[in-house]
Amino acid sequence: MKRSPLVVIFTTVFIDLVGFGIVIPVLPFYAEGTRFNATPRTVGLLFASYSIMQLVFSPILGRLSDKYGRRPVLLISIIGTGIGFLILGFATTLWMLFVGRILDGITGGNISTAQAYIADITTKEDRAKGMGLLGAAFGLGFVFGPAIGGILSRWGIAVPFLFAACLCFANATLLYFTLPETVTADHPARVSAAGGRGFKQLIRSIAQPRLGFVLGIYFLFIVAFSIMTTAFSLYTIFRFGYDAQHTGYLFAYVGVIAVIIQGGLIGRLVKKFGELPLVVVGALCFAASLFAIPFVGPAVGGLLALLAGGGIFSMGNSLATPALLSLASKSVSAAEQGGVLGVTQSTASLARAVGPLLAAVLIHSSIARRGADGLTHNMSDHSLFVTFWTGAAIMFLAFLLAVYFMRTHASDYAGSRVGEAA
Questions:
Q1: Residue 274, phi-psi category: left (phi > 0), alpha (psi -120 to 50), beta (remainder)
Q2: Boundary residue ending a domain (177, 211, 240)
Q3: What pLDDT band is residue 162 in, cutting at 50, 70 and 90?
Q4: Whole-prediction pTM value?
Q5: What is the 3-state secondary structure of the chain?
Q6: With contact defined as beta carbons under 8 Å apart, do 224 and 358 qualify?
Q7: pLDDT by residue (tens digit) across 292-343?
Q8: Higher pLDDT, 269 or 143
Q9: Cβ 325 vs Cβ 27: under 8 Å
Q10: Is 421 part of a structural domain of the chain?
Q11: Could you say which of 210, 281, 299, 399 is the most buried, measured as most Cβ atoms within 10 Å of its Cβ?
Q12: Which residues of 4-41 are buried (b: 16+ CB within 10 A; e: fewer)?
């Protein structure tokens, strides 16, 4: 494995996710402030506009990286994200906020392009380890990003966006001077594109049952993850009386476990057990933690039980996610890495839109039921169980699919990468 490019890609994704994490706690307060007076629904549309643009443009940028190279697409996407942050920081009207988020979403395909770069420079044995490093960069970015955003907001609510823009431009500079191109003239992706067969190959690859199973399981993982993150803060407030700071500590704890597993252990685990068993075990751990967490409270297990549940959830997600990305990469030839990993990123974007929406509907319907009985309009035990158990059911379905997939397609991944010789 080539370590120097991996360090650069890790740094690129980490800086990108720090910038993204900075926005999460600040944007709602920024948009709802006296300058813009946005409603909560408008704030939701702001976040949704980013995800929708990523859903549409991630496969396009991924395929462009197959045709023209990873470096130019990474550079353009990072610079576009920086410009989007500048627009947010200097916005004077509400529509400028939407322009900034939409531009960031359109150019936000750098994650799938970074994944394609990892696929270019790793062997099939080290593929999951490389994807795990990106997962570790994700975890670290989400640990540091929100904290930095909260600290910088003391000097002005727009300051975090300007700082994030500076991070992006510094990131682009680092990448320009240190990252070599992997899609050379004889790279299968460029040869395929020159022959005019690129998009046709991509469509055929997406229609393959192998890749369809991987994308389906990955979609269920992200939906369940999004349900958990949406409901978890309400759960800790209602059941434990925690504030945003204490809940942030819990998310940081989950992030640290993810960094340890994805950044250090996943490569050795894949070499010993393979990707598919890790997906199965990860789905089962994820489902079990989502099923058990609603039972936990100050009088039932307390903080230790909460930490145990969060740790099992993080372990399950951290085992399965890089393994699924590795399987998606191995399901197609080298000529289709960017396009297929772009589709994988779009699958994640769609799941991140579906999960919070489903959680909101479940919580609202449960609260509405309590309200009809004349009770307090707080998050009830009923809504806790319904929301978390829905996530657990989704993950149990992912577990069943993973078991079936392992029994029927394990031999496809035992030898060389599928489609490599095609």
A1: left
A2: 177
A3: very high
A4: 0.71
A5: CCHHHHHHHHHHHHHHHHHHHHHHHHHHHHHHCCCCCCCHHHHHHHHHHHHHHHHHHHHHHHHHHHHHCHHHHHHHHHHHHHHHHHHHHCCCCHHHHHHHHHHHHHCCCHHHHHHHHHHHHCCCCCHHHHHHHHHHHHHHHHHHHHHHHHHHHHHCCCHHHHHHHHHHHHHHHHHHHHCCCCCCCCCHHHHHHHCCCHHHHHHHHHCCHHHHHHHHHHHHHHHHHHHHHHHHHHHHHHHHCCCHHHHHHHHHHHHHHHHHHHHHHHHHHHHHHCHHHHHHHHHHHHHHHHHHHHHCECCEEHHHHHHHHHHHHHHHHHHHHHHHHHHHHHCCCHHHHHHHHHHHHHHHHHHHHHHHHHHHHHHHHHHHHHHHCCCCCCCCHHHHHHHHHHHHHHHHHHHHHHHHHHHHHHHHHCCCCCCCCC
A6: no
A7: 988 887 867 788 988 998 899 889 998 998 889 888 877 776 666 666 777 7
A8: 269
A9: no
A10: no
A11: 399
A12: ebbebbbbbbbbbbbbbbbbebbbbebbeeeebebeee
Domain at 227, CATH number? 1.20.1250.20
Which of 144, 177, 210 lies at the terminal end of a domain, its last residue?
177
Q: How far is CA 62 from CA 70, 119, 131, 187, in A?
A: 9, 12, 16, 15
Q: Which residues contact 253 (CB under 8 A, 6 or more apart)?
A: 307, 310, 311
Q: What's the mean pLDDT in 31-48?
A: 75
Query: 399: how many CB neighbours lie within 10 A of its CB?
Result: 24
How many Å apart are CA 407 and CA 165, to the nearest integer? 47
The values of phi and psi at residue 297, to 5°, are -160, 180
Range of the domain at 350: 197-413
**How confident is the model over 68-79, as pLDDT tens digits?**
888 898 999 899
Chain mean pLDDT for the chain: 78
The whole-number pLDDT of residue 295 equals 87
* Residue 318 in domain: yes
Which of 14, 106, 13, 12 shows the shortest CA–CA distance to 51? Answer: 106
Phi, psi of 63 (to 5 degrees): -70, -35
Cα–Cα distance measured from residue 238 to residue 234, given in angstroms and rounded to the nearest whole number: 6
Calculate the alpha carbon distances from 356 to 44, 290, 350, 363 in Å: 10, 15, 11, 10
Structurally, the chain folds into a number of domains equal to 2
